[in-house]
Predict the 3D structure of the following.
Amino acid sequence: MDITINTPALLFPAISLIMLAYTNRFLALANRVRSLHDKYKNDDKKLIIHGQIKSLKYRLRLIKNMQFLGVASFLFCIFCMYMIYINEMSWARISFALGIISFAVSLVFSLVEIIQSTKALELELSDMQGLEDPTLVDYLKKKFERE
C-alpha cells in the first residue's frame, strides 16, 4: 500500500474533534467531582456519594488514558508525515499503523467510559423510588386495569 503525505493528514480533523470531546468530558467530570466533594463534606448520604466519587475516579482515569492515546495518535501521524517527507516509507507505514491503533484504542476507552457514565447516572437515581421504567407488559397491565 502506498501512503502519501495526505494519508495521515486525513486523521487530523477526526483526532482534533475527538480530543475536543474528551476535554469537554474531563471538564464536566471535574466540575462534578468538585460539587460531590463539597456535598460529601456536608451531607449524611455519604454511601451514595462515596459510590459516585469512586465511579468518577475510574472515569477520570479512563479519560486521561483516552486523551493520552489521542495525543499519541496525533504524534504518530505527524511522525508519519515527516517520514514520508524524508522518504522513509517503512517507518512511515509503522508510525501510521501505530497512529490508527492508538486512535482505535482511545475510542474503545471512550466506549467504556460511556458505559461507566451510564452506571453512574443509575447510581445517582438509585435513591429515587418509583422512577423505574416499566416493561411493556407492566405498562399494558396498568393501562387495562384502569379501564
User: Anything to note?
Assistant: The chain is about 85% helix and 0% strand. The chain has one domain: 6-146. Residues 6-146 form one domain. The helical segments are 6-9, 11-42, 46-85, 89-124, 136-146.
